[in-house]
Amino acid sequence: MAEIISGTTFFSNRQLYTTCNTTKYSHSPSPDRLKFLIDKSKSIRHLLQIHAFLIRNGLESDPVLNFRLQQSYSSLGHLQHSVTVFKRTHSPTVFSYTALIHNHVINDLYEQAFVLYIQMLTQNIEPNAFTFSSMLKT
């Protein structure tokens, strides 16, 4: 586990399991280490473990961790998990909407991406340059 916490890219199921099962009472990984773990995860099993850790430790509302989790789920071909992360977001931001729109676009789900864009606008959330970039691909 020390290798993961220190920033090494090597993963074993045991190390990731140990890291993600760290309790609130022990030394938990920092948000930066969690971002690193999310970005380096190459399997759905690892992402699900990290996601469970975030939920257990009250970190599921962190916008940066949510964004990274959405992107990683989508890159592994699990768009539905990305949608679930978005739906559990208490106050979606332009970043969470843009991530989900982008994930739909890269999975060739253009109509659903457009529906999300309209939903974002109806909630008075202003799109940014990245949102427009994703929408141009539809």
Automatic annotation (TrEMBL):
Record GO biological process: RNA modification
Keyword Repeat: yes
Pfam short name (any one): PPR_2
Keyword Cell wall biogenesis/degradation part of the UniProt annotation: no
Keyword vocabulary terms for this entry: Repeat
PPR repeats: from-to residues: 93-127
A GO molecular-function descriptor: RNA binding
InterPro entries: PPR_At4g14850-like_plant, PPR_rpt, TPR-like_helical_dom_sf
PANTHER family: PENTATRICOPEPTIDE REPEAT-CONTAINING PROTEIN (PTHR47926:SF347)
NCBIfam families cross-referenced by the UniProt entry: PPR
Name of the molecule in the record: Putative ovule protein
Organism: Solanum chacoense (Chaco potato)
High-level lineage: Eukaryota, Viridiplantae, Streptophyta, Embryophyta, Tracheophyta
